[in-house]
């Protein structure tokens, strides 16, 4: 079989044994998987098709790899798997400013795409911390979100057309450049967010937008969670399409940042229960700034906020964002700890966060939960600290928080996906009928089960 793969993509693009570097079997946080049977690096869709046809004929399992920044072991090779790396499929084929689209191969790194589109005076709005490593194919396969979902949606909302290759090597070409298309089933949705278990994404047509202009940012201090959700509604009403981000921070998170992280300028003391960051942007900087200023004054009059600071320059805007961007460093100060990325209905978040903290303390006298997140998307980050003295603490805390999330009708994976790591908890967020339908789709599209076996549902 290896000879067939070499014939398909060339000798230099099939790596085996010691030629396989660690980046093909470790992820962005340094977790290490199994050495793959081989790494195959196609350059074109036709080569992906040939590779999958060979693997299908041999019943050989394949894991598709982008930038290895999804942290649920979706792309991490398991014993005997072929790693299909899309790293050589990185062409930006066309920036079409008339149609507002960019056509790109799946292995292109997100940041390269953002920069290329910006050079044409446009913006590709998906943005996340892993931008320098993650790929468009990985962003599509995990339906990535990021900082501006409230304005532009998730990856699903940015994909107009898609080309994918199914398990037997069939190329499904849906590379179309328009929004409205009601010609039967919307097949691209099968591949978006399905973590590579139904096919390999090879090329995509994505939406681009006019550049949004400067970002105006406000930090707000609030007396309670009802005021936080009130402020979100108020800002949605007052700023409409100019609202680009709305982040919430519980008191503990804010206190940790200003007390422990060097270089952060605190706009307020850590004596209020909640803090928010509101970002607005639009073509006319002065108009957006005046709009945000007026919205803040209105919120102050209605008692939604107790204090606010508005950025007057990009440096000040970045300084406010630094409070939220310090989350990785804050988690570093909380070790040992376990991080979660969950979604909840907004009206249940406050109670959920209180319960998570109480459960963390119940689990371990030194335990606590630190909470912050993208309020507009229903997405909360929860980091649970523990003493490290309890046996099997990380697994027990995982089960505790996923059970809690399920009991509040939430999603155990707002980002990253399910992969192998979260598979045991999928039933906390999806019904038995939903999981059975996922299996039916998998069976229909990949009857030999060669694509990312065991990810999302059991092989
Ligand atoms: C620092 C950091 C910040 C992050 N921030 C966010 C965030 O704000 N929002 C968010 O949503 N996520 C975030 N993520 C996780 C996010 O899922 C990934 O960063 C990204 O979307 C995955 O892209 P990748 O190319 O690295 O995919 P990989 O990690 O290589 O793969 C992820 C999954 O997609 C599959 N896959 C990869 N390429 C393809 C393809 N071409 N066709 C089919 N399947 C494929 C893999 O098999 C695997 O199951 C973050 C991760 C890190 C490390």
Question: How would you describe this protein?
Answer:
By secondary structure, the chain is an alpha+beta fold. The chain is 34% helix and 21% strand. It is built from 15 helices and 18 strands. The strands form four sheets. It has a seven-stranded antiparallel sheet with strand order 15-12-14-13-17-18-16, with helices on both faces. A five-stranded antiparallel sheet has the order 5-6-10-8-9. Helix 1 packs antiparallel against helix 2. It is globular and about 70 Å long. 46% of the residues are buried. Flavin-adenine dinucleotide binds next to strand 3, helix 4 and strand 10.
- Span between N and C termini? 22 Å
- Poorly predicted regions are none
**What global shape is seen?**
globular
- Based on CA atoms alone, the radius of gyration comes out at 23 Å
Short description:
The chain has 459 residues and is an alpha+beta fold. The chain has helices at residues 2-9, 45-58, 110-119, 136-141, 149-152, 155-158, 188-191, 225-239, 251-260, 285-301, 314-325, 327-333, 349-363, 393-407, 432-445, and strands at residues 14-15, 38-40, 62-65, 82-85, 92-96, 101-105, 122-123, 159-165, 171-174, 200-207, 209-210, 215-222, 243-250, 274-281, 307-310, 337-343, 368-374, 379-385.
